[in-house]
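Consider today's protein:

***
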Amino acid sequence: MSTFEAERRPVPGAAPSRRSFRLRFADVAIPAGHAWSSPFAKWQGTLADVSSLDLAAAVTTRALADRGVDPASLDGLVLGWTIPQREVFYGAPTLAGRIGAPGLSGPMLAQACATSVAALVSAAGAVTAGAGTQLVVLTDRTSNGPTLLYPQPKAMGGSPATETWVVDSFGHPWTGQGMLAAGETVAAKHGVTRQECDELTLLRSEQYQRALADDRAFQRRYQVPVSVGAKRPVTLDADEGIRPAVAEEIVKLGPVVPDGVLTFASQTHPADGCAGALVTTVERARELSGGAGVVRVLSAGQARVAKAHMPEAPIPAALAALAAAGLSIDDVDAVTTHNPFAVNDLVFAKETGFPLERMNAYGSSLIFGHPQAPTGMRSIAELIEELRLRGGGVGLFTGCAAGDIGAALVIRVED
């Protein structure tokens, strides 16, 4: 019988009102090879006019077929997305029907950049409760995000209030500061320099180039090509719009804000994409993997830090998840992160002692972009494949979310 444990703890070094939340799972796993991601498209690029629901249907159908999984054999669906699309109200059951599993249902979740971890935790909870094998799908299109109109009958002429969903979310209504300001605040607090940010950007770009070696051999382990539409298919076989970082060019860039340390090179860019995984019991995962091994989902953590200190949040989230698994950072073999700013990884390394060069061995969202909901799942898929190539081991994914939140997941790849 699976067990599920949760505990709230104070965040080390934070104000008394801040808390971390940690979960431990005893019998939850992803079959080896059953976590995937589409390539990511640049903002206003190839996928700009493709609904993320259409993208999810195409990518998920292909991913399951390539792995020999009958959609009708699955027991539940968790759909994560953060940007409304047409027919969003019926998103999960519509997606289930379109992939050939009309009997499936389940929640639709959104937690900004932490949506991947939230969806995996939801699926793990369902598995633990005996709900069977869960399909997790993460999809988002930051391109051409909706503009919402809110009725104001008493306003002058009844003019509605408007909200541009994606662009307006670059700021934070509670703190009154944008995400870039949070990056600069944390950089100043921890003494992060412009040179460190530039050097980290170059390192992550070099690591991403490793994933392209031998005709993208590493990426092909988990990536699912995109083909959407029948008459005139929209196709995407590889990440789009990524330029290798060049030291001579980076040092010439001015900071985004006066006297800041971040440039357009040392922060991520919006993107479009889809990712997913199967989550089930360890026994079922072994069956589905066909002898390729399992990825035990050991624990998860979430934390909040001070207002507008978002780049710090992955640290207490990671420590909470590790503590739940009974592990320390010294037990971790590989780390991937969602790092919208170079500051994130620099502060993580300073505070935990984990070497920068052992993080994000094949790139990160700093380089390949950030479609929001699927970003974390892609990094988790890369973490799994890195550990499989190593012959197994413990992996940690951690990343920030809107405002001051971090979320983390601890896994162990084994035979």
Notes: The radius of gyration is 20 Å. The chain has a mean pLDDT of 94. Residues 96 and 103 are 7 Å apart (CA to CA).
